[in-house]
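Q: What would this chain look like folded?
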Amino acid sequence: QVQLVESGGRLVQPGGSLTLSCAVSGTLFGFRTMGWYRQAPGKQRELVSKINPTGGTDYVDSVKARFTISRDGAKKMVYLQMSSLKPEDTAVYYCNLAPTPAFSWGQGTQVTVSS
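A: My prediction, written as structure tokens:
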């Protein structure tokens, strides 16, 4: 019943900026802590950021001061603003419940940071 649709990923140069969007349907969005995950080639999926129902946020050390997570309760959307992008940020980005990703994964959106 729950659908997660990520969008906004593209090729971007190192140092550039990008904003990802996640549309959530089929759940009581306002009562869930949501997170952004990413999976780079050959690596396991990792949680990079999460935001709770009252707006509290957390970030993995590697993206602190560069990424900002936000949510829009009315639109049932989660966003990830990324700046000062590095090649090591290259990955497929997904949204899901956090810290336990209990929903089925969406298709993800590819972010490629390369010159």
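The mean pLDDT is 96.
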